[in-house]
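Hi R.,

Quick one: here's the NADP-dependent oxidoreductase domain-containing protein sequence you asked about.
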Amino acid sequence: MSFGKILQLNTGATIPEIGLGTCSDQNKVESAVEIAVRNGYRHLDLAMVYLNQDEVGRALKKVIPSVVTREQLFVTSKLWNCSHQQGPAEAELDETLKQLGLTYLDLYLVHWPVAFEPGNGLKPLHPTKEGEAHLDLKTSLVDTWRTMIKLKESGKVKSIGVSNFTIEHIQGLIDATGVTPAVNQIEAHPLLPQDDLVAYCKQVGVHITAYSPLGNNRLGKPMLTEHVVVKEVAEKLGATPAQVLVAWGVYRGYSVIPKSVQEGRIISNFKQVALSEGDYEKVTAIGVPGNFERFNIPFRYIPKWDIDLFDEELEKTATYRVNIV
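And here's the predicted structure, written out as tokens:
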């Protein structure tokens, strides 16, 4: 089992330290969520764009109230890019709640700091630029954040936050509205420590949730679970490499949401181990300047998002930058 630790958000709410990510294959998530909740998970991370919230809703019906009460679960979902405008945002939240069979979310995040033109599905294609997503360059992050604030005021969302946002993006929201996001969910693993962002979030009171804590095979590269240092530390602790990487994120103060649809891995990932300072430093040393790697960059998606989100070298040729204000 996990250590059962919960972490404080700036809203006064608490978030369980370990959760289940659900960005997984369709038709397997219903079973995964049921297995997770029956084995102690109380934090579930969802999103409209994963196209499986209906599966999560079916799983929730099997475990509420027989295994847990609704209040014992922490359920996060995310607003997709095509719904950054007020009307579409309200409609997407209502659809999310309908799919899940819930009356409220514990946390609602802006999934990405970029808007798509609404009305043409989740991944609208640009009408004249082949192979590109149709970006909405008019709706700013602050516009969307003001809509999120209204969603929170509706009572359908307990806390609001962001995902994949940089220091500049978050500060823009705070400066314009005075409302600080409760959470920034980011790609976080030893190859992408983002120390400046982590320090900034701590300073302004934004909690970090780590996705892809095991690395990512999006680029066909070896997973961090195969790294020799991670395997050495795991062997020393009598743990799995995945447990070591989850523990690395926990050591840094994150909540961590490893994903899996395999029963054995779901259960194993929830069995926490604690890293000593020495073991933490060993794992941290995997990532050094010049060796950092961000796996999730939409500029190389198909269709491509022609926008610079992270100021990565790969994004230098992007046509557009994020419209903050």
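The radius of gyration is 19 Å.

Cheers,
M.
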